[in-house]
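Notes from the 1:1 (GR / supervisor)

We went over the backlog. Supervisor wanted to see one worked example end to end before approving the batch request, so GR pasted a single chain during the call. The sequence is below; no edits were made to it. Supervisor asked that the structure be written out right there so they could see what the output format looks like.
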Amino acid sequence: MKKNIKTIFNTILLALAVVVLLPGCKKLFGLSKQEDYDYVKETLDPHINITARQFLENRSYGATPQDTVFKWMRLGLEYAGIDLAEYEKPGRTFIFMHNEAVRRLDATGKVTGGMWFTYPIVLKDINGNPILDPVTGAPKTAPATKWSDYDKGTIKNYFLYLIGEGVYNFEDLNNLNKDIQSLVPAGTVATKESLLGWINGGKGFDQEGKFNLKIKSNNDLGPIVHNDLVDDRSAGYIATNGVVHVYGNPLVPYRAQQ
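Structure output shown during the call:
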């Protein structure tokens, strides 16, 4: 008897579901006021309606404590002594570093990724000379643990390299590299206290002070690639004075082809 009741009950539920789904049965269940919903595709507005500086400040240690994704970038800018007014000047492409692009920590607090790991500090002997690997000749290194482990001038130039002259957003790029002039002067060389001074033939920085941007798939669904190596984390934020692209991995300060 219990089985029969359950079967009848399930049959009634199924019938009600079919009735509700039939187009002509809306009135039966008081659904006559509802209208069919037509899906309209919408794109999120990329305009942030503030300057790049405000965007940086708001999301570093601003009004929303849990949203501090640019905290370590801002700390680096402050260490380097860069006036944040640079991020208010018009007609620029701003490359922002997400916290993970600067430092990633494991469960013990050890640096295991980001710029501080990719460009570690060169170990030196008691005389201040780099300790070289006897086999490879490369300097022995350890990850940085704070911005002040680096030379202040080199960090200043690193951040200046991440500001481009001119506005280059998705509609201005394609799948071919676009040379963009940065604010770092041509011929700038990185100091040797970190691996930054040992890359690119010992120059560190692009010797023309330029970087490349391109879209990986030649449309705005693909990431914007920096110097043929790093895909954006998010991109195309239209500030009132330019455009902001955000990266979550350390950026190479020179083009693959110079």
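Supervisor's comment: Confidence is low (pLDDT under 50) at residues 1-43.
Batch request approved.
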